[in-house]
Amino acid sequence: MELADTPVRQLGDTLRGIWRWTPQGREAGLAGMPSGELELFLDVASSGRGLRGYLDTSERLRSTLEPRYRVVADLLLDRPGTLRWRLLATDANPLGARYECQVVLDEVWGAYGNAGPATLSGHVAALERPLALPVQDNRFLALKRTFPEARERTPLSAPLLAKLIAPEHRLFHQLWHASRDKWHKLDDEKRGALRGLGWQPGPRARERDARGRHKDRNGSGEDFLFMHRHMLGNARAIEPLPSWPRFPLPQPALERDRVGFAAYFDNHDGNALPPTWLADDDEEYTQWVRDIKSPDTFYGNFQVWESRYSDPHYLSTLTLGQFGSELELGLHDWLHMRWASVPRDPANGMPVPMARTPDDYAQRWYGAENDFLGDPFSSHVNPVFWRFHGWIDDRIEDWFQAHERLHPGEVRRLDVNGVPWFAPGRWVEVADPWLGPDTHGCSTVPGLRPGRSVEMDPETMKLALRIIYAEDDRFAALRPKVPQRPWYARHLKVTRPLR
């Protein structure tokens, strides 16, 4: 059995998608086809070495009518960047023409993988035409359509978006996660500094870190679920934000479901999976990004999580804190990275494979186009964030119903800080879930912004973040040479089974 190696897989990732085909040359055109622009659908299986496609008008490719040409090729290149494929007339084309295409691939920002515009250019030769005749001037240029982002297809409302991109909201979300994620690694001096700023994760001296040894027993999982339910409630008060009823399926195979393939890449519902990307000098991370976006990972991991976290028998064995911690450190981080698009510099759109550094607060990062799901500074600006966090929040109700069924009356509903929640007891450990300084801060000094305490001022939050990340700056002179992965990707690893 032969599967694609890494370069062939990356080539397949680039070719897969929808291309705009423009005939060129004095004798341009294909038998039985209208003149003018056409569309080209290309597909390569995740680990495949074969290329298949269809060529016809945009309207016909998206209908139930059979396309008039299909593409047959493989990815075993004679020369780097050069492909050879056949265009074969289908039964829908009575002329029965056959062509061979010599194709050259050219990519903008090709070093970053499928992250920029790409073109295919080539020569078209009729296979029935004798080689002794002069070569016809029949060429084409195909431009790949860039992936339509969720914010383009299903944008958030202007009032909600204005709230989410505000410095206070971006910094709050980043700092809330950073404080919990890094607390167990901070020394006493840094912990004391964060307490002084009101940004310790939970009550003073009883902080609840999210990734230390006691993460599943200290109630941090309840903080995770509670804070995001609070976020959802505030956002849904401005705009209806539906949850995913199920995880969106991977891309359908072109030859099996052409109409579904077109709908997937048109991404009208905003739920299609963005393409993978390459990270220079970090082959492990490049492979990890590709793996987490693969169909195998969906069927081997995400569908298992989808089943397990709606299984009453399993949920009834977990405290709310255990459930939240398991969700946060597993499925949650994977959701963020699976549906992430390549991070880009908002100033010029150039790919930044390792994303914004956590302590870069330049003004350009505050724009609405910075909605990278791999960074808590920006993830909540992405419409997909609210769909999968809605799915996670719906599982809290599954957890409650599971306990009602197996342990009736042992979990009681209670309103906590305006959030529908649960009273402490056998299955609920925390009476005061952490929302940040609003629930556990000590300062009464007014901040620079009206109605805000000093702890919630952007400059105070930046200071707290710099204290947290100071641990990462121990080798400040070397750090610019060592790229850091996006936040939600730093704690994850894909383990391959032995074959």
Write down how many β-strands occur, each being a DSSP E stretch of 2 or more residues: 10
**Gap from first CA to last CA:** 12 Å
Helices and strands, in N-to-C order? HEEEHEEEEEHHHHHHHHHHHEEHH
Q: Sheet bearing the most strands, described? A: 8 strands, antiparallel, barrel
What is the residue-averaged pLDDT?
Answer: 90
The fraction of residues in strands falls at: 5-15%
Count helical runs. 15
Reconstruct the topology from this structure.
Blueprint: H1 6-15, E1 17-24, E2 38-43, E3 50-56, H2 58-61, E4 69-74, E5 82-89, E6 98-107, E7 118-126, E8 139-144, H3 150-153, H4 158-164, H5 167-182, H6 188-197, H7 220-236, H8 258-266, H9 283-292, H10 295-308, H11 312-315, H12 320-338, H13 383-406, E9 413-416, E10 419-422, H14 437-440, H15 458-469
Antiparallel strand pairs: 1-2, 1-8, 2-3, 3-4, 4-5, 5-6, 6-7, 7-8, 9-10
Helix pairs in contact: 5-15, 6-15, 7-12, 7-13, 12-13
